[in-house]
TrEMBL record:
Keywords: Signal. It comes from the Bacteria. Signal peptide: none annotated. Belongs to the bacterial solute-binding protein SsuA/TauA family. Pfam families: NMT1_2. The keyword Lipoprotein does not apply. This is NitT/TauT family transport system substrate-binding protein. GO terms for cellular component: periplasmic space. It is found in: Periplasm. The keyword Signal applies. The lineage of its organism: Bacteria, Bacillati, Bacillota, Bacilli, Bacillales. It comes from Mesobacillus persicus.
Length: 331
């Protein structure tokens, strides 16, 4: 009869057997690299998807980086430095018009209005758009969505941005807030929470919203190269599922709870400011409630680009937009 093994040996053998079994039972996760164009409370559904575990539920780990600028997001995608980009849909049109065998496809809409607010350096009583005439306006990058929507809204109110304003467009996207803070410009277009931060600090005053003036437009969408989407269909579907869950959660959740959920991405910003910013965006319908980028929004985008003289060519909705994934996810 064989002797029993010593307790230490038995424990070692048990661990050798148990650890591989535990590893086999653990679900594999996939890492997706996402490049966002800026860090803004405007993208609250994305941050909520991360903090509320919606991506994790789909077996995804998101490696999120901020690259500050639409041109830089597109460079990251084209050079395979990122798998998915979060940026304005106009960038996909620019790449397509330049000629490419691997177009960048819009598959999930995040925001559906402009996200900028008009901030005045001085307090303005009874503001009207005519107050801008003759002023120095610190604008956004030429050809980018903020600038094109800004010009669209100004023209709508009878203002020629290149004739009636001293328009500054040579400041890099990442440096616009610091340029205004240091004294450049009478007016500026700012995203939240920076607009509310300036207002709280007395550095500026929010006088109008470009989002309420411009109508629905695919302002910020998730996009990827066609080759990546073809090779990673299941991953894109899982990503879109997590996005849709987050959009529904944000739509049905109060601003305070949303602000608390996304605060880890804005550690230096007071929770009251975040709540105010979320409330502003929710009240003007900026957050898309589903990922579908419809044809009417796509056409509105091209109208705005055309008005700004930045539309290189007209592109059909079905050439650069994939709604099938989002439609299946919603079903």
């Amino acid at each position: 009869m064989k002797k029993w093994m010593k307790p230490g040996v038995l424990l070692f053998i048990s661990l050798v057997l148990i650890i591989p079994l535990a590893a086999c039972g653990k679900e594999k996760t996939e890492t997706i690299r996402v490049a966002e164009v800026t860090r803004s409370i405007f993208y609250a559904p994305l941050y909520a998807a991360l903090t509320e575990g919606f991506f994790e539920e789909e077996g995804l780990t998101i490696d999120l980086k901020t690259v500050w600028g639409g041109d830089k997001v597109m460079t990251s995608l084209i050079s395979d430095g990122a798998d998915i980009g979060l940026v304005g849909s106009e960038t996909s049109i620019y790449v397509y018009a330049a000629g490419t065998s691997d177009p960048v496809i819009n598959f999930g809409q995040l925001t559906q209005t402009d996200g900028t607010f008009l901030v005045s350096r001085n307090e303005v009583e009874d503001f009207t758009w005519d107050h801008l005439k003759g002023s120095t306006f610190l604008g956004q990058r030429k050809g980018g969505m903020p600038q094109m929507v800004g010009e669209f809204v100004l023209k709508k109110h009878g203002i020629d941005p290149h004739a009636d304003l001293n328009l500054i467009q040579n400041v890099d996207f990442a440096n616009i807030t610091s340029a205004f803070a240091s004294g450049t410009g009478d007016y500026v277009q700012l995203f939240e929470p920076q607009a509310s931060i300036f207002e709280k600090e007395g550095r500026g005053h929010i006088v109008a919203s470009f989002g309420t003036e411009s109508g629905h437009v695919p302002y910020t969408t998730f996009m990827a190269k066609q080759s990546y989407m073809d090779a990673n269909e299941e991953s894109i579907e899982k990503f879109t599922k997590a996005l849709y869950k987050a959009q529904q959660w944000v739509d049905s959740t109060n601003s305070k709870e949303i602000a608390e959920a996304v605060q880890p991405f804005f550690e230096d910003t007071d929770i009251e400011i975040l709540e105010m910013a979320v409330d502003r965006y929710k009240s003007q319908g900026s957050f898309a409630t589903d990922p579908i980028l419809d044809e009417a929004e796509w056409n509105n985008l091209q109208d705005i680009m055309d008005e700004a003289g930045e539309l290189p060519k007209e592109v059909r909705h079905d050439e650069l937009v994939n709604t099938k994934i989002a439609e299946e996810v919603i079903k």
